[in-house]
Recover the amino acids of this structure.
């Protein structure tokens, strides 16, 4: 039971770490895409929030694909 919880926490940690890494990339892309030099605090918070959400979705997708293909490989 403890091992299952630790594996679950490890998986969540990997997903969050991937999300933070992707967030940085998405943030740079979004800031360059908007191409505005005078960001308000609200606009910057919105850009950061959506960059994190995009990174989280991407990270979860990669993790699901990794698990799926590892199950196919084990057959």
């Amino acid at each position: 039971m403890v091992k299952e919880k630790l594996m679950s926490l490890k998986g969540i940690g990997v997903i969050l770490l991937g999300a933070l890494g992707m967030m940085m990339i998405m943030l740079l892309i979004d800031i360059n895409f908007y191409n505005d030099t005078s960001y308000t605090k609200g606009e910057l918070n919105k850009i950061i929030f959506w960059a994190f959400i995009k990174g989280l979705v991407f990270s979860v997708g990669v993790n699901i694909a990794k698990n799926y293909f590892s199950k196919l490989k084990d057959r």
